[in-house]
Protein 1
Amino acid sequence: MTKRIDFQTDPSRYRHWRVAYAGGVATLFMNVDEKGGLFEGYELKLNSYDLGVDIELADAVQRMRFEHPEVKAVVLRSGKDNVFCAGANIRMLAGASHAHKVNFCKFTNETRNTFEAAGAESGQHYICAVKGACAGGGYEMALACDHIILADDGSSSVALPEVPLLAVLPGTGGLTRVTDKRKVRRDLADVFCTVEEGVKGKRAAEWRLVDEVVPRSKFDETVADRAKSIAARAPAKTGPGIALTPLARTFGDDGSVTYSTVEVSIDRKLGVAAVSISGPMEPPPADTGALHFEGAQTWMLRCARELDDAILHLRNNEFETGVIKFHSQGDPALLLAHERLLLENQENWLAKEILLYWKRVLKRIDLTSRSLVALAEPGSCFAGTLAEIMFAADRSYMAEGRFGGGNRPEAAIALTEANFGLYPMPNGLTRLQTRFLGEPGKVELAKAVLGTALGAKKAHSMGLVTFAFDDVDWDDEIRVFIEERASFSPDAMTGMEANLRFAGPETMESKIFGRLTAWQNWIFQRPNAAGEKGALKRYGSGLRGEYDMRRV
Amino acid sequence: MTKRIDFQTDPSRYRHWRVAYAGGVATLFMNVDEKGGLFEGYELKLNSYDLGVDIELADAVQRMRFEHPEVKAVVLRSGKDNVFCAGANIRMLAGASHAHKVNFCKFTNETRNTFEAAGAESGQHYICAVKGACAGGGYEMALACDHIILADDGSSSVALPEVPLLAVLPGTGGLTRVTDKRKVRRDLADVFCTVEEGVKGKRAAEWRLVDEVVPRSKFDETVADRAKSIAARAPAKTGPGIALTPLARTFGDDGSVTYSTVEVSIDRKLGVAAVSISGPMEPPPADTGALHFEGAQTWMLRCARELDDAILHLRNNEFETGVIKFHSQGDPALLLAHERLLLENQENWLAKEILLYWKRVLKRIDLTSRSLVALAEPGSCFAGTLAEIMFAADRSYMAEGRFGGGNRPEAAIALTEANFGLYPMPNGLTRLQTRFLGEPGKVELAKAVLGTALGAKKAHSMGLVTFAFDDVDWDDEIRVFIEERASFSPDAMTGMEANLRFAGPETMESKIFGRLTAWQNWIFQRPNAAGEKGALKRYGSGLRGEYDMRRV
């Protein structure tokens, strides 16, 4: 699996999904092309999916927000007759590297979280209409919807057969959503998760696994009714949408990627990627009319899309870059002017959606299993939304004073209201709340200097950056950090960062990424699943897995 | 490592710890005997520890509660001059099986939790007096104390060197307590956890890693002062303590263990252990005076100690028994009379301590990585405290009606106030609250039948048991369940159960066992740590670990 995985697509290129729009209701048909796998060696039978299928789903969900603001209910259903979705493709999983499996699960989880949040955030509610077998990742997709309707026809069922069949866990939030979202009684959940064939009919509703069970004859009618009544409840948004035009991107032979506002360069010897963000050069749109006119070209949206794509590219294509350095260059005042237009017009759906997208991009950074370091150098523009990247990083370095006689302005950071509630982490707290969990007064102190340019000394004394160095020490300190990081075990780094980043409370989301994922990763390494005689490898061979029966 | 690990000890047999009592203050001296390792192949240098050392610590902590109720402050310090504690012994870890490592960490975690809770629960506050190097598991021991005093002498330090040195995580709650208890800023925590030599002096206090830093000249005086003032604040308890006399225990050649109230039998072919509890035969002590007189022999304490020992034995010596079946036999009314004496006399320290011990034993069951099933058969006594075992189990089966003409009374369960707050799970909720997370009204319904004997039909309809079967189906259903469980991958079971058992909120404790432990287990499997060229294996060889640099 060495070809570059591309996270950009558009409906004209979909092979697995079709979207139909009718007034406030969209229907997402899953009809996976068996021959359309991202890699060789497996066929996507029975609406099973691989990362390629999920990239299209993520794209469809994202476009729904920006291109179809009029949509208020989304019906997720199968485009095939007798199967809803068989889940992640097992031959793909059996053949994939550990790193690919883990990052595949991470991306699918992020996509599920995105459409799960769409109801509360954007008034786009997902309804899952299940006819036929809905198993594993298929049921996990359903679990992330607001409402699950199951056909009562003696054969349609929901199931999480991973444990009995494959000796792995449902890895896309299934266990957590069963206990924490649907609040299925734990002993019934134990039964459900160990029954290969799943649960159907009335029992599925009694056990809280689905919201309603409907005879096949009334299925389509009921689904349409639910969609209509949900659409009627959601507030109307004034369209039209904006087109998410293709990203301007160039990939270099050296691993570099150049976007319009983001540049990625890679030092493979050191195992470091640099992600440099260029602030806006032009003034912001004058008003929301102009914002809509700029559409996907407006800096705040363009930068979010490019940064998102860059992170996904690094995560999935550059496994050996263990460190990501974030740089920025630009005029902080201009950046904040762009941000301000959005902050002041949150009743405008597009302004709001761009901020919500930044929330997702920042969470994507939080969940990136690489050592993250932000470098605030002279001329940088880590202000407001971009300052969040500094707080998402594992550590941050800030330059003190002018550097080597250059004429770039001294590094400064500035906070805005965006730093105090708009962008919660997966644990439900803002990055500053998490940072100052033991000293909440420091959040208040930071709030008191809203909009002020804070130099290195001040930012350091306020606890907003880890280190401040002048140009005598700067290069050495950064070099030592990078070399040190490169000398550590990447696994230990991943585990350490996953534990240090998310202090404080847990949410369903943080439980999925922190607890469920960790257990799944462990199991993905165990011979009972992934070994030559393991259940995952042997699936479809007619042989059962051979297990080492020692409990751990 | 095939010899039987014994969790029973007493001060006369300690090789590594010494306890000195002076009024309300106890001092726990750690002075590990290098030659006193539980297994061959390593020396416990520099106050490093293995499971044997921790078994003594757990015993000392436990005896403090029962034998020395007058103790209000416990000072934990080193009995060696220049080192506090170097943490878990690395050669032991490098040579241990995965299952031993994981269960070693689990037990040490439980012991840390026990003394961490002793302040709030029993008025026994732990103070850690750190002189010399305090690294890894040593610092994790300190983190579990209420107050950490560090000598400011240019050499004493606290450190978590696991990541840079061994490519594993601090596995005894270190990362979680750094971020969630001491609330160290996450970027400082990142620096701290990657600096092999740790942090000393004033910086350790500034970073919130310790509570105070004291010059060596004033160290002993300050420690004594703190202990005295803490002891003065805690409420006095009327002694004397009761002796925790040796357990009456017989091990059979077939793996069976016979205690006075608990019997363990093992079917190695099926991979099942049966734990059978016999309810009390005698009436309860008449009053608290009689309770003190009975001391360790009183049924409620005896059963708790025996059950605790049985669970630890199964966990650490019987890795291939993947299922634990819980049975009980006895007179529920008599059992509840014993319980009632404790419930009604919680102002009596001994009554209270016995209930607190049950809380710990039940949590130990929650955290046991085996499939747990409770079988309420005719003649069983799953009432009150013992009913909690049914709610701790992954599933429960209840017998309906009389069985095969036998004269044992029909199975019934009964709830008491013990089921509604006394025994929280690691997630902070009661087992019934967790069970009915989605239907909180059912907790109220259960409360409304306090003290009533509930037959199988009633208990099943109230959701208190998973299944109810009569004697026609009983044996078959249990057999099918056991066979099914034996056919599953033990790893998948462990991961699934760790996720399904703890719905709802998370606490520091549940984060340690659910999140930190899962990541550690993953890393313990990875070649970068545990492989032939991994850092853990190579430690002390002069060679660094060789790492696969791919991030996951």
Protein 2
Amino acid sequence: MANHDGANEVFLALADPTRREVIRSLGSGPASVGELAQPFAITLPSFMKHIRTLEDSGLIRTSKSGRVRTCTLNHDRLAIVGDWLKEQRRVWDQRTDRLEALVNDQEETR
Amino acid sequence: MANHDGANEVFLALADPTRREVIRSLGSGPASVGELAQPFAITLPSFMKHIRTLEDSGLIRTSKSGRVRTCTLNHDRLAIVGDWLKEQRRVWDQRTDRLEALVNDQEETR
């Protein structure tokens, strides 16, 4: 099955608490890798791996100015998750509608 | 960083198009493994791996009756994704509020 929209990479990027926390932090605005790394008790190379995974998924963009790499959240990319959930809810609602119609039919024919 | 709520497993389970499609199918109601596997051009053992990953994540429950294993969606578990998105939106809204307040302050002092 195809992965047209990059949903695989986005969900995979979010399957880690450090990366989810980075996304959460960036919700408050752009930040440097140094600032983002601060709360985590891991080495900078390990942290950079997480940053690269997030960048590869498209969830964040990074840009370097001098020695500072700044990360910015890409809201559009996170919409992939929201859209998928919305589609899932649509499927449930259709099911609920069908079940309701079935119950109403049974009541009418009683 | 801890993973108290099983979010890692849920996001990881969703990082695959076959597994997302199974979740989507189960949105219409419980189904047997055989029914669920039908649209996919993969072997049953490969498909069973996906089912087990989904079961381990708590997104689905399975039960066996005779030779038929039936899968049921666990809506509550999918709420982990929705709750995380909601929390993320709360962080953004706070930022937007701060930016708006800043703009208003600047206009007032102009």
Protein 3
Amino acid sequence: MGDSTQLTDLPIHEFLERLGSSDPVPGGGSAAALAAAMGAALVAMVAELTIGRPAYAEHEEAIRKIRFDAIDRRVELLDLAQQDADAYDVVVRARHLPKETEAEKAARSSALEAAMVDAARIPLRAAVVASEVLDLAERIAPIGNKNAASDAGVAAQLAAAGIRGALLNVRINLPYLAADEPMRASAPVEIARLEALATNGEHAALAAVDARLVAS
Amino acid sequence: MGDSTQLTDLPIHEFLERLGSSDPVPGGGSAAALAAAMGAALVAMVAELTIGRPAYAEHEEAIRKIRFDAIDRRVELLDLAQQDADAYDVVVRARHLPKETEAEKAARSSALEAAMVDAARIPLRAAVVASEVLDLAERIAPIGNKNAASDAGVAAQLAAAGIRGALLNVRINLPYLAADEPMRASAPVEIARLEALATNGEHAALAAVDARLVAS
């Protein structure tokens, strides 16, 4: 990014300007993680608006657990948004290494391969955590405060978009990994698993939200 | 929100804390608009990474136009995120009006109906602008810098989630509109149109991104 500012300390309007600038960092990986972090925050809000209300006392314990987990995922996803930017910064630096001589080419290539491990590993972790947020949204949608049903639905949409967006970032970086890097074999399986979770979780959460919007 | 801070001036980590708090403002409407604003920023970044590169000279003019439009939509969506929070704040205040006497009940009810017009109108506008961002992502995905194909894909995911999330906020508020409010009749038609745009645009954009990820 050209300086050491933490993304998460930036005012939103400034973050959006940097996201849209000609600097490739921050990019889609950070944006996907932040979308899922907003989803986690919305799950926590729905829980807050439910806890302590007599009409929802039956689910109090489950919802306290959901709130706790949602806050945990929000914090991790915010950290992953930063980590993704840092990792991609290392990739950009490796790309700018000299490639005149054979020795320089070899050094640049192995620097890029090393940098790509984090550039693939971090969005893969973000997709996993986003899938946990989607699960929390799916669980709170039918039992949370009915007046916040749309918020549970938005949480599910943002978590699903976060999963799919993070996985695109894994996929674009995989071809640059070293031939013997284990993620080359393991990531495609994990990608397929997480894509299925995104589709199923999104449908289930939105069906629950729809039922409550119609009933209200 | 209890104070007059502009959401968009908040550092990201603080915005996420407020989003997750027991205060219903900001809520899902602001989060959906912000997700689409991140999508618009990513479209602008892909354009920035494409403009001026000889390999993409053929599409230079189209991409300059896409960049211009993406920046415009980013600014409007950020403003809509704030407007949504402000509008819902008015709803919350109306809900807290006294409802002891018949006169108080009538006054509270008409204050709520009036507040709900903005609470439905603003996310409907956000869904329209998010659908324009999705269109921009779909257009840049096949012709933008191939190395940023995943960013165009994340932009499409975030725009689609922004549309659907904003529409959930319209739907939850519609039943509270006055019986003679024109949006009661017009909004369902517009909601169906925008949902179809979200589905079709997302598929088209991701097919274009997939083709470029496989080819790379």
